[in-house]
Amino acid sequence: MRQLALTGAIIALASGCSPENSVDRNAHTDTFLQEPVADVDILWVIDNSISMASEQQLVADGFEGFISTIEDTNINFHIGVVTTDMDAGNPEAGALLGEPHYLTSDDDYVTLFEERIQVGTDGSDQEKGLSAALEALTEPKVSGINDGFLRPDAVLSIIFVSDEDDCSDDNALAGEDGSACYHNEQDLVPVRDFVDGFIDLKASTNGRVLTSGIIGPSASEGCDGSWPGHRYEAVAGGTGGIVGSICDADYSGIMDQMGLAVSGVLSVFQLEYVPVVESLEVAVDDELIAEGAADGWTYDEEYYTIRFDGDYVPPRGTTVSITYEVAGSIPSK
Question: 157: Cβ–Cβ under 8 A, 6 or more apart, which residues?
Answer without folding.
Answer: 40, 41, 42, 43, 209, 210, 211, 212, 258, 261, 262
